[in-house]
């Protein structure tokens, strides 16, 4: 276990293993996503209340889920980076920030698109949408802080602290926004809480969820590999690898 | 210069003295604040300015002001606190005092807490004391004005504690005022919601004890956790001095 | 005190992907004066900040009396005096307030001692002037006055003699010599030629390791 943990901290080892994993991840993401999206958009039954507009959940739910879980994953990486001084932890944070922000933005966008036919307006200050908006701000804050810092070591530790402070605050922010929402809008239709979704709907949803995970893993590994090359550009093995390409 | 030190070389065990150090931290903060009074006044003027933009920009109708007033005051307070927090560690970083502070043989988180408490008294308390005046200008009833002051008293310490984390993280960066606002504002949302929520409840005649209790809970959490994060962030910021 | 106070083992530090130094060993005992030398950009300040426990971005071990510094941080800091490029003299405080405040963070500040230390540093008559009104050399003296109040066995002084005049430099050298004689340890960087005996040198930037 410890040896494995130690290896994970080595950029060279990680670069190699990520390179071997990526084709598998990429192709399976493509296949799973195609199956899930085609099934969800074309073959799953229409919702008896919302008609076809509900189909956006096949994009919206996975992106919203990943937007949130990636922030938590970044916080875990932040702790690992601070406690064990693992270089790869910051590489992960650097790569996951943009992907997480993109997922959160996608969730907001799809939420707005869904809102137009459902609520008759592009934007409603719904609890979930507002929480996602704040989450996007949290991501943008991490990106802004990283962008302003030049020293890689300081940047790594500072963003780790910010992400950890963020993850402590996310439940508080979520709770307060939900409470605020009940105060101002007692009745809104929840985006995802269909009480009893038939299997013909949730099976493609699960497939989409899996596909998004694979896609995000692929994206993050891709970005991490770029980040490693950039950081280790003076290392001998990087030069050898680049020449071999 | 004399060529002999006055104190002999001696190995010291870690000793107490943290109370004295915390007291000294507060004393220094206040002394410097008093000598640079203009730095204290600027955020107050900013606060009043922001508030007075709303009647000009939206509507001077007493009905609108009465409804929107508490929220306007809260948002303006939040922004001017962030504005003054940007300066919290800046001069100390520039002249190297921050480094000496981090190197003093005391628990840094505790010193940070003392520092934040001192700053709250010099920069936020005057702002809260201005609120009754602004309340009159925004046609708030005295009772609502009082509730507003209470929520600000309970909520602003959280803002200062949490904002100080950001101030500590960004102290080594040039011109980081906007950056501080950008990274810290999302963290201020819960305080804003419960602070203004209490006022709304009071307007509707409901009890505000629950809101104040929630603000109190956030404050206790912030008092325990934020100083640790501030200390960690300060160590990071001075590491590359 | 001849036991090892501070020990650095196999210190490796990079800046911008360029190793500043690697495999650097340093063992500082009471009664020793170390001078860190090397050209600009060789990492002298970086090394001093690593030794002071300010900069954790290095690989290797840093031990205070045999214990890792990060584990005995408070105790280490109680026995360390560090003067950096910016020594922490606030322009909005008087010379007296600056020194007394610095002292109070460590041990109780005795007003007479603080006054005496200021006059030792050549600031008699300037005690109640704001540091902003003092010259650069005088401001540096406010920081150097801490040396007279410090019982710390280890002094780390970065560019110790900057901005002070020639006379003060030779007096400071005498102070350091006496300090070392009394069992203290000093690590410093300076561009001045040191007129001291028994200085041990650690030169950075000649190959990757020194000593």
What do the pLDDT scores of chain A average to?
87
Reported for the largest beta sheet of chain A, the result is: none
Distance between the termini of chain A: 33 Å
Calculate the mean pLDDT score of chain B and round it.
92
Task: Supply the number of structural domains of chain A.
Answer: 1
Q: Per the principal axes of the C-alpha atoms, what is the gross shape of chain B? A: elongated
- Rg of chain B, alpha carbons: 20 Å
Enumerate how many helices of chain B there are, as a single number.
9
Share of residues in strands of chain B: under 5%
The count of β-strands of chain B is 0
Task: Name the beta content range of chain A.
Answer: under 5%
From the N-terminal CA to the C-terminal CA of chain B, the straight-line distance is 29 Å
Helical run tally of chain A: 8
Biggest sheet layout of chain B: none
Helix content of chain B: over 70%
Structural class of chain B: mainly alpha
Taken in chain order, the helices and strands of chain A follow as: HHHHHHHH
Uncertain residue segments of chain B:
none
**What's the count of strands of chain A?**
0
What is the 3D shape of chain A?
globular
Structural class of chain A: mainly alpha
Description:
The complex is a heterotrimer of chains A (245), B (241) and C (211). Chain A is mostly helical. Chain A has eight helices and no strands. Chain A has helices spanning 2-8, 11-43, 57-84, 87-119, 127-148, 152-184, 199-231, 236-244. The radius of gyration of chain A is 20 Å and the shape is globular. The model of chain A has no long low-confidence stretch (mean pLDDT 87). Chain B is elongated, with a radius of gyration of 20 Å. Chain B is mainly α and 241 residues long. The model of chain B has no long low-confidence stretch (mean pLDDT 92). Chain B is built from nine helices and no strands. Chain C has 211 residues and is an alpha/beta fold. Chain C is built from seven helices and nine strands. Chain C has helices at 44-51, 73-78, 95-104, 111-120, 136-144, 146-149, 166-181, and strands at 4-15, 18-29, 33-37, 59-64, 67-68, 80-83, 154-157, 185-188, 199-203. In chain C, the strands form two sheets. In chain C, strands 6-7-8-3-9 form a five-stranded parallel beta sheet. Classes of the chains: A mainly alpha (245), B mainly alpha (241), C alpha/beta (211). Chains B and C meet through α1, α4, α5 and α9 of B and α2, α3, α4, α6 and α7 of C.
């Amino acid at each position: 276990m410890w040896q494995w943990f130690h290896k994970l901290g080595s950029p060279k080892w990680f670069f190699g293993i990520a390179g071997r994993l990526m084709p598998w991840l990429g192709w399976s993401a493509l296949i799973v996503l195609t199956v899930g999206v085609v099934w969800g958009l074309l073959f799953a039954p229409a919702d008896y209340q919302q008609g076809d507009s509900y189909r956006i959940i096949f994009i919206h739910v996975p992106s919203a889920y990943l937007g949130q879980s990636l922030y938590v994953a970044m916080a875990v990486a932040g702790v690992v980076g601070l406690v064990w001084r693992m270089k790869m932890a910051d590489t992960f944070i650097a790569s996951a920030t943009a992907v997480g922000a993109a997922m959160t933005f996608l969730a907001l966008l799809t939420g707005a698109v869904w809102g137009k036919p459902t609520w008759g307006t592009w934007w409603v200050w719904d609890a979930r949408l507002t929480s996602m908006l704040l989450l996007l701000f949290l991501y943008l804050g991490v990106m802004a802080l990283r962008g302003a810092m030049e020293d890689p070591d300081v940047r790594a530790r500072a963003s780790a602290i910010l992400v950890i402070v963020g993850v402590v605050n996310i439940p508080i922010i979520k709770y307060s926004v939900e409470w605020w929402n009940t105060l101002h809008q007692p009745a809104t239709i929840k985006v995802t809480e269909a009480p009893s979704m038939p299997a013909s709907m949730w099976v493609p949803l699960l497939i989409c969820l899996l596909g998004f995970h694979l896609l995000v893993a692929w994206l993050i590994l891709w970005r991490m590999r770029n980040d490693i090359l950039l950081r280790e550009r003076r290392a001998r093995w990087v030069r050898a690898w680049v020449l071999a390409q | 210069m004399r060529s002999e030190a006055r104190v002999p070389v001696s190995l010291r065990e870690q000793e107490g003295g943290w109370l004295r150090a915390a007291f000294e931290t507060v004393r220094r903060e206040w002394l410097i604040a008093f000598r640079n009074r203009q730095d204290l006044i600027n955020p107050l003027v900013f606060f009043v300015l922001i508030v007075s933009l709303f009647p000009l920009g939206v509507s001077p109708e007493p009905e609108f002001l009465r409804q929107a007033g508490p929220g306007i005051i809260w948002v303006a307070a939040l922004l001017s606190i962030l504005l003054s927090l940007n300066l919290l560690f800046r001069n100390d970083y520039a002249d190297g005092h921050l480094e000496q502070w981090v190197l003093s043989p005391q628990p840094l988180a505790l010193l940070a807490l003392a520092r934040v408490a001192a700053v709250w008294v010099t920069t936020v308390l005057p702002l809260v004391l201005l609120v009754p005046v602004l309340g009159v200008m925004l046609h708030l009833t005295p009772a609502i004005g009082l509730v507003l002051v209470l929520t600000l008293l309970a909520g602003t310490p959280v803002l200062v504690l949490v904002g100080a984390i950001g101030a500590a993280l960004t102290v080594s960066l040039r011109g980081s005022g906007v950056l501080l606002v950008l990274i810290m504002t999302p963290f201020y949302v819960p305080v804003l919601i419960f602070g203004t929520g209490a006022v709304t409840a009071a307007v509707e005649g409901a009890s505000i004890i629950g809101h104040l209790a929630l603000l109190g809970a956030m404050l206790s959490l912030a008092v325990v956790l934020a100083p640790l994060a501030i200390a960690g962030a300060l160590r990071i910021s001075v590491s590359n001095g | 005190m001849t036991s090892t106070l501070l020990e650095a083992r196999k210190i490796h530090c990079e800046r911008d992907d360029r190793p500043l130094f690697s495999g650097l060993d340093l063992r500082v005992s009471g009664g020793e004066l170390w001078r860190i030398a090397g050209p600009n950009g060789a990492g002298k300040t970086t090394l001093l900040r690593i030794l002071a426990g300010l900069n954790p971005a290095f690989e290797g071990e840093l031990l205070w009396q045999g214990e890792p510094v990060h584990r005995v941080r408070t105790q280490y800091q109680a026995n360390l005096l560090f003067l950096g490029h910016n020594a922490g003299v606030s322009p909005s405080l008087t010379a007296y307030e600056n020194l007394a405040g610095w002292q109070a963070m460590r041990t109780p500040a005795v007003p007479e001692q603080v006054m005496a230390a200021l006059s030792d540093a050549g600031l008699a008559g300037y005690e109640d002037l704001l540091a902003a009104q003092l010259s650069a050399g005088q401001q540096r003296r406010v920081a150097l006055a801490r040396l007279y109040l410090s019982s710390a066995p280890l002094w780390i002084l970065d560019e110790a003699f900057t901005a002070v005049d020639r006379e003060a430099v030779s007096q400071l050298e005498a102070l350091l010599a006496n300090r070392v004689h009394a069992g203290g340890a000093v690590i410093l960087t300076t561009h001045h030629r040191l007129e001291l005996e028994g200085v041990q040198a650690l030169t950075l930037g000649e190959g990757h390791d020194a000593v």
